Amino acid sequence: MQVFVTGGTGTIGSAVVAELLAAGHSVLALARSDKSAQALTDAGARVLRGQLADLDVLRAGAAQSDGVISLAFGNDYSTDEALARSIAEESAAMAALGEALVGSDRPIVTVSGTPWVPGRASTEADPLPVEGPVAGRARSVNALLDLASRGVRATAVRMPRTVHNEGKGGFAGLLTEQARRTGVVGYPGDGTQRWPAVHALDAAVLFRLALESAPAGTAWHAVADEGDAVRDIAAVIGRRLGLPVRSVPQEDFGPFGPIFAMDQPASSAHTREALGWEPTHPSLFEDLENVQP
Predict the structure, then answer these.
(1) pTM of the prediction?
(2) Which of 10, 161, 274, 289 sees the fewest Cβ atoms within 10 Å?
(3) Which domains are delineated in the chain?
């Protein structure tokens, strides 16, 4: 299968490209820069040059492929406005890719976050929240899944708050980056809120499985660690960096503050049973031992 991949050089995307190639698929990957194009070429993928906002380029990539994995997202989260722009760009791109596949029965796999449900771990059957700072992503994912009725095998892999590899990535990675800037490993609230996590290499396997066999209109949870307490995550980062650890106002985390403060464990029991997915790589706490002082 030739697979068109957007976001193929990120923490998740680079792992997905490698997983697809190792499984015998070929990859056509979107690249917006010479650096990205070289990284993708070195990995063994073919390159299609363009930006996520270049909808005609996206349609061309989908048209010449047997399936699509949509992972690209803007990297400016500094303000509410910047986050909203990234969400709008992603939504337009996802809509263009989905429409390009209508009537073909070809697969498209997109990415979203696991939902949060008060008092328990969320499951694959829980709907994504359509209110809040990232609600636009939920609406665009739901619109893509609705294309199942129009001959598109659309599925979604829901990612936990931390997707990690070599001690980097996800919400835990953002805590580490902020700690390096401020000299304090801060967390919002009392730190008892829980974040789910997964190693990027394990997540990549699930994207491949969803592409190959998941039924249209379904959602899956790439969750290895159901819920790690944020203050415990911060404690490991503090020990590795030699920095103090304490609670700080959620406003210190900008647009992500309200999300950082939420208790949001998630289960992947159905995903494991239905698709045979089984994480094998290090847990978040094990991987955080790779954080360098």
Answers:
(1) 0.93
(2) 289
(3) 2-162+197-225 (3.40.50.720), 166-196+227-265+281-290 (3.90.25)
